[in-house]
Amino acid sequence: MSATVLGPDGELRCGWCSAAPEFFDYHDNEWGYPVDNDIRLFEKLCLESFQSGLSWRTILAKRENFRAAFSNFDFNVVAKYNDADIDRLLKDEGIVRHRGKIEAVINNANKAIELVEREGSLAAYFWRFEPDEKSLPEPQTASTSEESTALSKALKKQGWKFVGPTTVYAFMQAMGLINDHAEGCVFRKKIEHARSHFRRPGRV
Q1: Of 16, 94, 157, 185, which is most buried by a Cβ count within 10 Å?
Q2: What SS3 string covers 97-131?
Q3: Architecture category of domain 36-180 in CATH
Q4: How many other CB atoms are there within 10 angstroms of residue 147's CB atom?
Q5: pLDDT in tens, 105-141
Q6: Is 17 annotated as a binding-site member?
Q7: Looking at the annotation, which residues are catalytic?
Q8: pLDDT for 62-107, tens place per residue?
Q9: Can you tell me which residues bind Zn(2+) (predicted)?
């Protein structure tokens, strides 16, 4: 896949957009913009865990179904899910019916509550792992990093599940902790502008 591809407006986008028509909207309006909302951060980490072994196109197509099934990923609600909820989710054809991943979301919701109690917010904690831009590899040449490995290990130590370094790196790309838009992509500068004006949570 080439580094860039022409978008519908004739401007260059990241090459992966060519894999599916719906990727252009996701790329232009979501991917890489910095996020400090705890629910959105939790949702994305959960969806990335569901993607493991699958394609993002599959997950993106089912995202609204996931949101409906998991109470819009409000971890305060999901943490209270019980065996009846697991059975309900395993019968839901609109999502990925993987018991281990479903149980991981519920487990991680409980761990998210604990983390918020200790750190104030998920955002304040996750953004501590934002890498120094000078240490980043060339855009879209890596699937893990020192920081994604460190965050993965930290979360696993706290009891989170399905949060390996690759999953965490994809989460960091999407949530704007790094700007991994390709050189030449028209959105690389737009994301950098958004990141430069973004107030990092938990910092004075």
Answers
A1: 185
A2: CCHHHHHHHHHHHHHHHHHHHHHCCHHHHHHHHCC
A3: Orthogonal Bundle (1.10)
A4: 21
A5: 999 999 999 999 999 999 999 999 999 888 888 888 8
A6: no
A7: 26, 48, 56
A8: 999 999 999 999 999 999 999 999 999 999 999 999 999 999 999 9
A9: 14, 27, 181, 185
